[in-house]
Amino acid sequence: MGSWDCYCAICSGPLCRVRTREDYGEDQGEDGYDPNVICEEDFEWIRTLYILGYYSNPSGGGKAYISGLGTYMDQGSVSVEPPDIPNFEWTMEEYCYDAEENGVFPFHWSCFELLVRSVTGTDNADEIDKDALYNVMNGLAGDGFTNLKLDYGDPTPSICQVWNCEEGGEFFVMEPTAHLLEDALSSIIASKKFSLPSSSQELGSCVKNDPFSKLPYELVYKIACLLPPDSLATLSRASWTVNVSLRKDSRFWKECFRRLMPWFFEIQELMKRPEKVEGKDLKGMLLWADKISTPRLGLTGPLMGLANCRRIWGVCEQLAKIYQPGLPRGWNPDGTWAERCQAYRAEDVVLFEGLGQNQNQNQNT
Fold first, then answer.
1. How many Å apart are CA 40 and CA 222, to the nearest integer?
2. 169-197 residue pLDDT tens
3. Cα–Cα distance list, 226 to 234, 237, 260, 267 (Å)
4. 49-63, 199-213, 311-325, 332-346: range with lowest mean pLDDT
5. What is the pLDDT of residue 137?
6. Distance (Å) of CA 239 to CA 189, 202, 211, 234
7. 125 DSSP 8-state letter
8. pTM for the whole structure
9. Do residues 163 and 31 touch, judged by C-beta distance below 8 A?
10. Which helix (H) or strand (E) is 315 found in, with range?
11. Cβ atoms of residues 296 and 155 within 8 Å
């Protein structure tokens, strides 16, 4: 059957076998990552893993656990240190993504830290309900025994028999928690690049028809809050009313950072310090942050980890959406309407049930 890899349940990145062209040698052509873009120290973090598993107590009952440190072996098996559970019958070697046999789910600790933040809003891993998380991952286990049935971003890691170290995809293996230092970010923000530009109010008299001029500010605010950064910039250029109303509204732009970039932790902290952002072009800062953090093949430089963090955060949000402490074991994402409603956060269940009732009434009429 030969060797084959399985991947991190959270980022779908490799658990081993990451090499640059220098590791392969000249006779291997262009295989391997570019050593001028990434070095061995950059992907040291992926060589160790942990697993989320489920322990069935012979006397009845059971519970989910997180193992100690481990490594990937081959053909879906991992070797990890046992969890701190009394009388735990440890096999030393576990198999990943086997939903039928209490399979385990491997992950990088850095990816798990992002998941904890996304699910709980804190840095405390103890806040995670491991039983609920295991239920979710077990319900999302695919048939290929390699990763979960999730959208792992665009671009998405290429899932092959073994991890493909293709040049241009170096950002996939950059540690997602390796970001700009806050001091470096403060220096960038302090530069003249983000000085608030002057605006001539005389241009307003040149506007012949602006539908937004007839709307109250509160409604303009709510509409703008629904838009991604590029659409928001387009709207500001198209509507003089929107541009003038929001340009100096720091409350609005801080809300945009909170809503659109929860994964950019350093900039979130910066927004809490008025002396650092007062008089700054926050719209320009938002567009800059969106551009530098967009995941893309061929990305190089010190912000590769930030781009990977943004990609992985999107996966964490999918898991957070269906994570709910207390879900019954064996939850099925392809189940009935009522079963799937139970998987969403408590505040969403009422809405979904209402939609289901409306659908039933429409069918009856």
1. 47
2. 999 999 998 766 677 787 887 776 788 76
3. 13, 17, 10, 20
4. 332-346
5. 93
6. 27, 15, 8, 9
7. G
8. 0.82
9. no
10. helix 304-322
11. yes
